[in-house]
Structure formats: C-alpha cells, structure tokens
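Researcher: I'm comparing several assemblies side by side, and this is the next one on my list. It has 580 residues spread over two chains. Same procedure as the others: predict the full complex and return the structure.
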Amino acid sequence: MTTHDRTKRHPLWTTPAVEALRTTTHTKVSEIDTKATPGFAGNKADGEYMLEERGAVLSALQEMLYANGRSGDKRSVLLILQGMDTAGKGGMVRHVIGQVDPQGVDHTAFGVPTPEEKRHHYLWRINKALPRGGQLGVFDRSHYEDVLVVRVHNLVPPEVWSGRYQEINQFERELVYNGTTLVKVAMFVSLDEQKRRLAERLERRDKHWKYNPDDVTERSLWPQYQEAYQAMLDKTSTDHAPWYVVPCDRKWYSRIAVTELLIDALSRLELDWPPAEYDIEVEKQRLARS
Amino acid sequence: MTTHDRTKRHPLWTTPAVEALRTTTHTKVSEIDTKATPGFAGNKADGEYMLEERGAVLSALQEMLYANGRSGDKRSVLLILQGMDTAGKGGMVRHVIGQVDPQGVDHTAFGVPTPEEKRHHYLWRINKALPRGGQLGVFDRSHYEDVLVVRVHNLVPPEVWSGRYQEINQFERELVYNGTTLVKVAMFVSLDEQKRRLAERLERRDKHWKYNPDDVTERSLWPQYQEAYQAMLDKTSTDHAPWYVVPCDRKWYSRIAVTELLIDALSRLELDWPPAEYDIEVEKQRLARS
C-alpha cells in the first residue's frame, strides 16, 4: 500500500474531513449542527463499514510510526479530545484508538487535578504525559480544561485564565517544533442528546458507573460552556495546531471523522519503513552459522 | 452473560489452560515441546475463530474491571510476558491486549535500563509502572530480566542476583496482597523456530527494524538462558503468583492460551457492575428538570 492509496479519498467523503471540520473564524459554537455529518454522504451502515476499512489503514500507518520511533525518530502524533460530558470521548478511544496496536498508544485521561497536580503549574501534568517518539498519544481532556471548566467555575481569576490562551499557543508551538503533530478535536453534542445519553446511564445497570450527579449541575451552565468553547476555538486554533469541530450526536460519524483526521496527520509524516542499521548480508551469514 | 457462561470451558479445550500450562516442580525447560498446544484439541483455524470469540469475553470482563476501578476498587490484573527474542511478546500485546479497550490498559515495555534506571534499585522502574485499580497492566519484559539477562551476562555478581529470587517473591506477595492478580507467562520458542523468525526479519523490508544483531549473539548463550529460565520457574513460581509455560512456535496457540489465562484471572475477581453511588430516582427527576 503506498501513501497515495492510503490518502486517496473514499467517494462517500465528498469533502475531506480535515477540510470539512477545520474550524474557521466564522465557526459559531452556538450554531453547530451536532447531528450533521460534514463531508460525508453515507449513512450509518456506510460509516460502520468505513470504520473497519479505514481502521486498518490507520493501524498500518501507526505501525510504521512505531517502527520509526524504535529506530530513533522523535516524531509523534497527539490526539487531544475535548468535549462536554457524554460527547463520546471514551467511546472514541475504545473504537478508534482500539483499532491500533496498544504498544504504540500512550493514553492519558485527565480528571479533576489531584492535590499534587494542584501544587504545580497546570501544564506540569500535561508535560509528564506527552508521547515519546513513535507513539500515538491520546489525551482524554487536556490542558484545555484550564480554560474551560476553570473559566466557567471561576477556579482562578479572569486575569489568570485569560493569559493561558497565549501560553497554550506557545506551548503547542514548541511541541510541534519538537516533532509532535497535534490533532485537536472539539466534540459537540446537543443539550437534548446529552439528556438522552445521561438518561440511558440512569436506566442501565451496566452504565450506572458512568453517571455523575455533577453532570446535571453542569447542564445549567451550558451557555457559559458554549462561550468558553467559543473562546477556545477563536484563540487557540492556530496554523501549527488547528482545532477540528466534530458533531457527535451520531457516534458512527464522529468515529470515522476522527479516524480520517488521524490518517491525514500520519500520512503527512510521509513515513517509510526505517532502513536496516546493519549489513543485511553479513547478518544473514551470522544467523546461518548460529 | 453470567460469570458461569464466561468461564464455561469450550469443548476444544480438553484441559483448561490454567491447568495445562501451570508450571510444576517437574517442568524442565530443556524438554518443553515448543510446538505443542497443551490442553487444546483444535487446529489453527479453530484457534483463530476462538481468539475472536473469547476476545469478546475478555473485553467484557475487562470493561467491568475498569468500571469497578473508576468506582474505587483497588484491584488490578498484571500480565507479565517473559521470553527469548522472537517468542512473540509484541504480537501477544497486539493481538490479545488489542482486543480490549485501550482506556483500561497500562502497557510498559522494559528495555535495557536507562542511565537513570541504572542508578536505582532494579524494582524502581517496575514500581513506577504498576497498574492502578481497575487497570489491566501489561509488562513486556519485567523485573525478571534482572535474573535472566543479568545472570547470563554476569552484569552483577552471583551473590547479588541469587538473592533476587527471594526478593521478587516477597515483592510479588505484597502486590497480590494489595489486590493485583499476577498472570506470569513464560513464552518458549525453539532454537530453530527463532532462526526462522530472525531470517524473516532479515528478508522483509517491513521487518528490518525488528532485527537486532545482538539477537544472534544471544543465540550462542541458549543453554545459559535455559538454565536461567529453569531457575526462574523453580524459584519464583509461587502459590500467590505462579508461572505459566506457554509453547510459542504456533503463534495462534500462544494467543488463545494467554487469552484464557486472562479470562480466568478476571473471572476469579467475581466482578459485577458497580452499584450506583447516588439515588437513581432522584437523579432521574433532576435530569428531567435540567
């Protein structure tokens, strides 16, 4: 399979996901159609088929990234997932990242900061979790919590959080400069769809553990969150690390969309199998004699 | 699916893997039939079908472990993979662990100790990588390197490595006491099969990166390694943390065998979905009003 084959667009993608989803200066969080399937002309069945087909492509590219990392390549890819509760961050990890080799995945879920984390700069725990060369890093929530929940709940004064956008841009610029491709995904569900998903967690015994009473409290702060997400997109979508806005009412769509975003990021690295760092013929002889 | 269904033995398993593979005082490393499929009466096609079928069972159990971990359960499962080069440790991770949710997997590959690791006790890096409650930890190599390669290459004097067996037993007893179920898997290939696999790495461009000239050097030390593996099995297979000896010339067999060992370990935890830590009816009303 050549790079060309991998990146060739499927006819059901009328616009490539990277183009259809990339945030622009016109993106309005309050106007996002969370049921939409931007760029994709297929239905759920098409999407499920495509997840499998393109998952194999993603897996092949990821193996090559891993191989290069083992051979000293410092480059890595970092998927950042941000979204309101029930947007489907966990399912994204399970169904998209679950398609690639666990050896090459470095997954971190960021929760409420621990007492130790609170005693440090907010980027301290982020730095500790960055993927090394060859790894596909996955952040389930990230440093963006520090301009989202922190902003909405006034956990630090406005003069503190307002300085963070610029700091984050600089931090990410450094990451990109050091070889990490960032794939920043903002996941959006509607208030109604969130209610439906929370209700399901209350109905099903196997989902009770996913429900947190605070999630309902947060619903009353929806407008404030929309404002915080808007500011995040406006201020931290940069050329070196753009945001992609993914509608998530249809889980099947959000999963194939992120699969495409990752395939695009990996394809841009123009990877090949790393060359042998030894003399192949000499080694064949040594092996034959051993 | 009840616990009973999950643990019900498939007719092709004439003896459960935990029984067929558990090392005994009679196990002789030099006499292991690495082509054998202990306990399993099927062929490769049966094995491939079974990997998928039982992988789904493993995945369901792992999700329940993860759910309990999120609800405060401190228990975890740790798979330890030891084996000579080409035994298939990486493929085991990819094909067995790759079947479960990456969110619940904590994978660590231990290589040659870094300068920092060398300045610490050999269990320092192990302690840092232990799975937290609810996680399925995976060690690709482990503290057993410190009584295998270290012993064979005299990296420390005999009086040092000889004391480690007892120390490891005590260390693992503590882990088990604290809620970690250890699944220790010793993977064996024959010298001939290793040669074939190394030759393939030299033949295939997409496998050159997996080949290391040192692997051939190590082949000349095969008897010393067999002796070190024998001592490891004899001295560190305990009631709280037994070793399982898995023949690995047939990859499909080794993968279904380890899948069964993990299913057994998880089943013994007798997990159920964690109960709601809130009043379900109250929350339904709160949600409806939100």
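Model: For your comparison table: Chain B has a mean pLDDT of 95.
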